[in-house]
Amino acid sequence: MLNISPIFSGSYRHSDVEFLLKPVTIEFTSIEEKEALIQSGKMHYSDMLSQEPEPTQYHLDLFNKAYTIGAKRLAKEVMMLAVTLAKEYGNTPIVLASLVRAGVPLGVMLQRALTMIGKESYHYGISIIRDRGIDETALAVIEERHGTEGIVWVDGWTGKGAITNELTKALNGRAGYPAQPRLVVLADPCGCAWMSATDDDWLIPFGIMGAPVSGMISRSLYSDEGFHHCMVCNHLSEYECGLSLANAVEQCCQEIELSDVPPIDIKVRDSIKAKEWERSKAIMTLLAERYDISSSNRIKPGIAEATRAVLRRVPDHVLVRSINDPDVSLLVYLAKEKGVEITEVGDLIGQYRAVTIIKKVL
């Protein structure tokens, strides 16, 4: 039997999620120094953390507005995913493996929705890191407990497919997994997830907040000895909102009649996805050429990714489809605060409503 300690649920209920991570304390690296170390290749991003800043009142107000407006949409789309998963898996228990951090809020909502409709399910938070792969220790724990048949990977949304590629690579040749990872997301503008509720790049409330909406943990840190690591963000405890968002969505889910929830037709979506995937790659190539970008890691497409990049990286340029789009108002506000150039580019960014380009610092 594997040693599965430590397991914790952060600020969520114990029944909501088990984080397969080891909480640690490390010294913070400034955002500017971190960016230089990442771009020079001297350190990997998963070896460092900058202290996550407290959200401003404007940030909180916009989150609350997105939460108020978006809760019903979240509930409807979460129920669509839950109903479809229950249909797909039949009598097999579902094992939700949420990719830390962005997948966790959706995983919690799905766990509650599956319980609500009487489907046996389990939920874990597991780390996957670009260029370094999945947490092998955590994955071994899940496999030992449940096997592989019922495992579903959960992320919040897709950007340009980097994590999908990382997941595919990590599972390639590993017994018990299909060739295409069963990745479930709320929004799939990139067209690379197995199942999604929508292709829209929309203002997902948990996409514009960090630790406070993700169980109060940092993004994961790499470790080659046991579980990947994280820090518990106690300095942000007064802003915790993941639990209240999950509660609000659960309440909305309870008001939905199951007969009104259409299951997602995965086969129909496959033809749409293929076109979006090709379109996404073409947009990334176009932006790389236009803005002289040698590494695709410096391009962060989609409202959520673009917003997070402004918060925790050194942004150079923010592109928006429309400057008056209310869904990008937080991004525009944060960019202006940092003195970052903002350009309205219309359809240049295709299916995305915003893209942040990371500054080349070397």
Describe this structure in words.
With 362 residues, the chain is α/β, with parallel strands linked by helices. It has nine helices and 14 strands. The protein has helices spanning 31-40, 57-89, 103-116, 136-146, 162-171, 242-254, 266-290, 303-312, 329-337; strands at residues 18-19, 22-23, 94-99, 121-126, 128-129, 133-134, 151-154, 183-187, 195-198, 229-230, 299-301, 315-320, 341-344, 354-358. It has a six-stranded parallel sheet, with helices on both faces. Helix 5 (162-171) links the parallel strand 7 (151-154) and strand 8 (183-187). Helix 3 (103-116) runs parallel beside helix 6. The longest helix is centred in the N-terminal third of the chain and has 33 residues, at 57-89. The radius of gyration is 19 Å and the shape is globular. The relative contact order is 0.16.
Along the chain, the helix and strand elements come as: EEHHEHEEEHEHEEEHHEHEHEE
Characterize the main sheet. 6 strands, parallel
What kind of oligomer do you see?
A: single chain
| Secondary structure: number of strands | 14
Estimated structural class: alpha/beta
Span between termini: 48 Å
Report helical residue fraction: 25-40%
